[in-house]
Amino acid sequence: MSYAAPSGEAFAKSDTNAAKPAKAAKAVTSVTACKADETPTASLKGIEHFADFSTPIRNLPDCAIATRLYDAARQVWEEGYCQPFIRDLRSGGLSRSRFTFYMLQDYLYLNDYAKVHALILSKTDDEEVAEHMVGILSAIAKERSSVHEVYARQYGIGADEIRSARQSAFARAYTSNILAIAYSRPVLDILVAVLPCAWVYADYGTRISLETGDALAANPYRTWVDMYSSEEFWQSSVWLLQTIDRLAAGISDVGMDRLIDVFVTGVEHEYMFWNSAYDMQLSWKPGWERHEAEGSMR
């Protein structure tokens, strides 16, 4: 799911085709991508895992809690990067029908996503958090108002497809979980619940950009990669991590375990969101067989 940065709308940002900086293009020689025959946890050469908070183009300021969160979710995080949806998106070979399924689920996610941030705004007494939530809600509103035009122009997704879309069981499990947390838990827990949406995407987008380098120019999903590898999007993750670290100061071991459980569950939901998109699965039965029979797998 896309995390809307407060300074701009996600799909408006993805509508740029400016060339990537030269350093990103050169970095491809020092990065090894997941390949189909590799184990999902294969390490990336030349690029540190986010547990160390350092890559050739990213640097997270000191943030102790982030290390604990990433380490707890490391397995599903790394296997998520090597799953078929991300692999095919990275190569440019992802079928348009699968990407359309994913984008429509992402659009439906925004409804509940906005409610979660509105609940944070209603609960917080922290001025910085309140100001940031106002910016995010504004960005979501702008994104939703322009979604028909942008989807049609960028991805060929028509208005009828958007209107008739329904949420998959996996997406509903994800949003139901974060909504339950938003209604029943304190602000800190809610921020941790939405963190995977920002942080995982920033990591994956950055890795794809580094690994593909100049070849990204020919990738049909370049605008998606450009958005999630951007400095603006990365800063949305930095803000969340720093704010969570600040609010969690002095937290008990029991409280920390609670936050870790929330975070790992969110990363697992991100994995299932992409996996269900690859299988085009709305409910208990994968939908790719039906689409293949109808000749719509392209």
Automatic annotation (TrEMBL):
<keyword id="KW-0784">Thiamine biosynthesis</keyword>
<dbReference type="InterPro" id="IPR016084">
    <property type="entry name" value="Haem_Oase-like_multi-hlx"/>
</dbReference>
<dbReference type="GO" id="GO:0009228">
    <property type="term" value="P:thiamine biosynthetic process"/>
</dbReference>
<comment type="similarity">
    <text>Belongs to the TenA family.</text>
</comment>
<dbReference type="InterPro" id="IPR004305">
    <property type="entry name" value="Thiaminase-2/PQQC"/>
</dbReference>
<protein>
    <recommendedName>
        <fullName>Aminopyrimidine aminohydrolase</fullName>
        <ecNumber>3.5.99.2</ecNumber>
    </recommendedName>
</protein>
<dbReference type="Pfam" id="PF03070">
    <property type="entry name" value="TENA_THI-4"/>
</dbReference>
<dbReference type="GO" id="GO:0005829">
    <property type="term" value="C:cytosol"/>
</dbReference>
<feature type="domain" description="Thiaminase-2/PQQC">
    <location>
        <begin position="71"/>
        <end position="279"/>
    </location>
</feature>
<keyword id="KW-0378">Hydrolase</keyword>
<comment type="pathway">
    <text>Cofactor biosynthesis; thiamine diphosphate biosynthesis.</text>
</comment>
<dbReference type="InterPro" id="IPR050967">
    <property type="entry name" value="Thiamine_Salvage_TenA"/>
</dbReference>
<dbReference type="GO" id="GO:0050334">
    <property type="term" value="F:thiaminase activity"/>
</dbReference>
<comment type="function">
    <text>Catalyzes an amino-pyrimidine hydrolysis reaction at the C5' of the pyrimidine moiety of thiamine compounds, a reaction that is part of a thiamine salvage pathway.</text>
</comment>
<dbReference type="InterPro" id="IPR027574">
    <property type="entry name" value="Thiaminase_II"/>
</dbReference>
